[in-house]
């Protein structure tokens, strides 16, 4: 049974506070993606929550209809480590070059990373800058501190803000990657960030770009941890309302498509010409419209039923999964996978291995289990690492096996 404290219905738009919201997508009740459990019993008892999306009719922001209590979402079983994906490590290396060019930050300046995870971003700035991280997840924070990256294990709230200010003072740059769509009280958090900046200080953040999700049909990036599904227009309106100047808006391929916004706490509020042009281009795409969003759920159903047909055609062969990212829980639900249909799923993240998927009897085993070669089909849940995974499978010299990539287009490799 769900208690009232476990979840909160989100009535108003989280960016403009409008009450006029409209539901355009509903996956039903889904387990929390990262809630892997040590025992089958605990797994089967794990809670499930509604997963559906609303559009704000006033500012066109998209958001979940229900938010799960962050204590349930993050505290116990949170296993995501940015440092485990090599593509992410590269992303941060490029990010450092880009941000130093844009902000002309001098060595010795101070940088705060909000949602710093295991310190994968901050480690690049460690030598020349004063760095501080803050993250509510315990395990990643511990890992960062072991690497001598000063990290506070907490949410950014009134108390942690005071602690940061007394140790570091205000910051020249505050950065945040794929975090701000997770935060329950986003308006307060953005205000805290504003308070923590020096005058003329920069705030640069990346969030998933909902236009890329729509364009590419990446519907499995919708999960309880992401409360907001951002596009530039509603976000820029919101940032300007809380007094930020907008310096630059860009997109990049990180995490299936990200939106990067560079803003500034300046004396006089302004928006750059580049940012205005970005907004015009976004508006022209016509992706976030009632008409387009209404059609999206049919497109998703079509993709899922195609996949189910393919999986059905392998029913005489044993099936395994590759990768246990957060999104795999949605796939397990949509493809109606259970222990009878799928033997196990492999993943090399030490925090996930030998655990069970939430609300399921399916177990996660180390990747070298595939060497047993006693199956006919691999479903790749971590399809965003398609190239790396196929390379890895070829190295293992597996024979007579089909590999399904479920998104963005269904692809089948024969090994
Ligand atoms: Zn709104």
Description:
By secondary structure, the protein is α/β, with parallel strands linked by helices. It folds into 2 domains: 82-285, Vaccinia Virus protein VP39 (Rossmann fold, 3-Layer(aba) Sandwich), CATH 3.40.50; 313-414, Rossmann fold (3-Layer(aba) Sandwich), CATH 3.40.50.720. 31% of the residues lie in helices and 23% in strands. The protein contains 12 helices and 19 strands. A 7-stranded mixed beta sheet has the order 8-7-6-9-10-13-12. Helix 11 (328-334) links the parallel strand 14 and strand 15 (345-346). It is globular and about 70 Å long. It starts with 6 loop residues before the first strand and ends with a strand. The relative contact order is 0.13. It binds zinc ion. Residues 13, 15-16, 18, 56, 58-59, 61, 234 line the site of zinc ion (ZN).
Question: What can be said about this structure in brief?
Answer:
By secondary structure, this protein is an alpha/beta fold.
């Amino acid at each position: 049974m769900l208690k009232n404290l476990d979840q909160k219905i989100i009535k108003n738009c989280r960016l403009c506070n409008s009450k006029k919201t409209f539901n355009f997508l509903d996956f039903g009740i889904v387990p929390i993606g990262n809630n892997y459990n040590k025992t089958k019993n605990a797994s089967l008892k794990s809670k499930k929550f509604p997963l559906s999306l609303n559009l704000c009719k006033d500012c066109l922001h998209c958001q979940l209809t229900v938010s799960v209590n962050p204590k349930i979402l993050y505290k116990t079983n949170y296993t995501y480590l940015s440092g485990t994906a090599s593509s992410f490590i590269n992303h941060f290396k490029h990010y450092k070059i880009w941000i130093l060019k844009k902000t002309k930050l001098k060595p010795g300046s101070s940088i705060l990373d909000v949602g710093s995870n295991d310190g994968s971003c901050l480690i690049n700035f460690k030598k020349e800058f004063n760095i501080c991280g803050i993250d509510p997840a315990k395990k990643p924070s511990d890992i960062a501190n072991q690497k001598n990256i000063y990290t506070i294990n907490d949410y950014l709230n009134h108390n942690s803000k005071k602690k940061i200010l007394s140790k570091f003072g205000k910051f020249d740059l505050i950065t945040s990657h794929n975090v701000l769509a997770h935060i329950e009280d986003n308006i307060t958090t953005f205000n805290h960030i504003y308070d923590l900046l020096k005058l003329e200080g920069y705030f640069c953040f990346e969030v998933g770009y909902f236009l890329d999700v729509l364009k590419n049909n990446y519907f499995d990036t919708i999960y309880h941890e992401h409360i907001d599904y951002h596009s530039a227009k509603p976000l820029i309106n919101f940032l300007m309302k809380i007094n930020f100047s907008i310096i630059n808006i860009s997109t990049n391929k990180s995490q299936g498509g990200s939106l990067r916004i560079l803003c500034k706490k300046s004396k006089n509020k302004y928006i750059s010409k580049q940012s205005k042009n970005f907004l015009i281009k976004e508006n022209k795409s016509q992706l976030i419209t009632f008409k387009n969003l209404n059609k999206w759920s049919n497109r998703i159903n079509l993709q899922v039923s195609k996949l189910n047909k393919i999986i059905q055609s392998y029913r005489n062969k044993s099936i395994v999964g590759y990768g246990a990212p957060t999104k795999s829980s949605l796939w397990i639900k949509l493809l109606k996978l259970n222990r009878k249909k799928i033997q196990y799923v492999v993943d090399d993240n030490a925090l996930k291995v030998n655990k069970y998927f939430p609300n399921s009897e399916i177990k996660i085993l180390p990747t070298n289990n595939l060497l047993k070669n006693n199956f006919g089909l691999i479903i790749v849940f971590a399809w965003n690492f398609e190239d790396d995974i196929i390379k890895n499978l070829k190295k293992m010299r597996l024979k007579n096996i089909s590999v399904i990539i479920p998104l963005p287009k269904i692809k089948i490799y024969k090994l």
